[in-house]
Amino acid sequence: MATAKQLQELRSALEERHQALREEIREELVASDQQHFIDLAGQVHDLEEESVADLLVDLDLAIIDMHINEIRDIEAAMRRLQVGAYGVCIECDAEVEVERLRAFPTAKRCLPCQQNYERNHAGNRHSTL
């Protein structure tokens, strides 16, 4: 089980990443607004440029969506920390190794359970683009 010092380090890493993601989302939204203004100002002159502009907007939204999902994972990990369930696999109740948590602080499964989950759910991912 992780020591109190290790848990504090992991909590700090989660909080730092949470803040960084919030800032990245803010920057993406500001950049997206600027791009929309440029498009509205008449910078897109033909269908090819419009298609590229639409693709860039879609990519920006996909990146924001990924960041939001990571924020949700971080917030779930923080809740597990608060209730004393952090570092406990949600599948088998085994300990999630500290090394795994350091590499992936939002990990909610031990490595064997995560590998099993990925094997069984690999085909369920669908592109949103």
List the helices and strands in order. Answer: HHHH
Principal-axis shape equals flat
Structural class by secondary-structure content: mainly alpha
- How far is it from the N-terminal to the C-terminal residue, by CA? 41 Å
Describe, in short, the structure shown:
The protein is 73% helix and 0% strand. The chain contains 4 helices and no strands.
Structure description:
With 129 residues, the chain is mainly α. The chain contains 4 helices and no strands. Helix 1 packs antiparallel against helix 2. It is flat. The mean pLDDT is 83.
Provide the descriptors you would attach to this structure in a database record.
mainly alpha; 73% helix; 129 residues
Set out the fold topology:
Blueprint lengths: L3 H40 L3 H37 L14 H6 L7 H11 L8
Helix pairs in contact: 1-2
